[in-house]
Amino acid sequence: MNSQTDNSRPIWPYVIAILGAFLIVAALVRAMVHYTQPPALGEDRAAVRAKTLAELRAAEAEALEHPAWVDKEKGFVRLPIEDAMKLVERDWGHDPAAARSNLISRVEKATELPPKAPEKPSQFE
After folding, report:
1. Is 64 in contact with 82 (CB distance < 8 Å)?
2. For 16-56, what is each residue's pLDDT tens digit?
3. Which residue from 1, 28, 36, 99 could staple onto 91, CB 3.0 to 4.6 Å apart?
4. 20 vs 33: CA distance, rounded Å
């Protein structure tokens, strides 16, 4: 009498089942990471910043290439760099002393303080 029985079941179905369970869990983890990932913080701001930078550079190019009034009351004009250089060469090339005095008078005019307001007389006078 043989008390040992032959219980040799194949092991490959168990291995396949365990590998299948691991693959299912891995797929679920990947899906959860994908669906719970927040959008990039600066994604929408990057487009806004690029648009603003392009507008700023266009405005700067416009300011550098075309003359315009800065302060009409004081007579300040914004000139393109090439035109301003030609004016400086013309003024300083002929008579530097006159150009210097002209420059000093323009600086004084631009930086002069408004007149002091009159003091209110005392009510007891």
Report:
1. no
2. 999 999 999 999 999 999 999 887 777 788 889 999 999 99
3. 99
4. 20
